[in-house]
Design a protein that fits this description.
Strand order of the largest sheet: 3-2-1-6-5-4
Number of helices: 8
Largest sheet: 6 strands, antiparallel
Strand content: 15-25%
Order of helices and strands: HHEEHEHEHEEHHH
Low-confidence stretches: 183-207
CATH architecture: 2-Layer Sandwich
CATH superfamily: GAF domain
Distance between the termini: 16 Å
Number of domains: 1
CATH topology: Beta-Lactamase
Mean pLDDT: 79
CATH class: Alpha Beta
């Protein structure tokens, strides 16, 4: 019950943050950190698909090392591609599953299990959200539904950015997000950038 309550509060805080922010980079960072905190996992990563290269490119990550994030191109055709075509995929053992593109790098990072869900808006694939655990994990239906809901919210924020910033594709959004990220030197918390009234309300609910 406590975990369900935390998940609902996280969903509420992220939704409210999006309604007050037009900065996709800020929302993406808040999303991956919120998922990691709510589920108590090792980390989380939001990918946007680059159709020209058939690759998944990192838009935001939390809890993962730079070495792992920059391990190499993530192929949309090799790296848990079933989650892009068929829906959520849970992998309990990264060292014993052929769908993992970089099993040795995952083991070195201390990753045991991965949950991957697609980000689809209006029937169009935009990318994927992936959750990483440090211990073998059997993800529950509640976990999957929660991550899917947050992934959809993140996808909608990217779509809104296209209109508000006049961008034509997810890759254009990704480029602007990376440009903004290089200008920042401090890590944001899930509530930075959120109006005080929203942050205070959320913190009060969790106390």
């Amino acid at each position: 019950m406590k975990r369900k309550l935390i998940n609902y509060q996280t969903l509420l805080s992220v939704t409210k943050a999006i309604s007050h922010s037009k900065d996709p980079e800020e929302v993406a960072l808040m999303t991956v950190e919120s998922i990691t905190t709510a589920l108590g996992t090792k980390g989380c990563c939001l990918f946007l698909i680059n159709r020209k290269k058939a690759e998944l490119e990192v838009a935001a990550a939390f809890g993962l090392s730079e070495e792992y994030i920059n391990k190499g191109p993530v192929s949309a055709m090799r790296s848990i591609y079933q989650s892009l075509e068929e829906g959520p995929v849970a992998i309990s053992d990264v060292m014993d599953d052929p769908r993992i593109q970089y099993p040795e790098e995952a083991q070195k990072e201390g990753i045991a299990s991965i949950l991957s869900v697609p980000i689809k808006i209006g029937g169009h694939l935009m990318g994927a959200m992936r959750v990483y655990t440090g211990e073998p994990e059997e993800f529950t239906l509640e976990d999957v539904n929660f991550v899917q809901a947050i992934a959809q919210i993140a996808g909608l924020s990217v779509k809104m950015a296209r209109y508000t910033k006049g961008l034509k594709s997810s890759i254009d959004v990704l480029k602007t997000m990376k440009e903004v990220q290089t200008q920042r030197t401090t890590r944001r918390t899930p509530y930075e950038g959120v109006p005080v009234s929203v942050a205070s309300e959320t913190i009060a609910m969790t106390s």
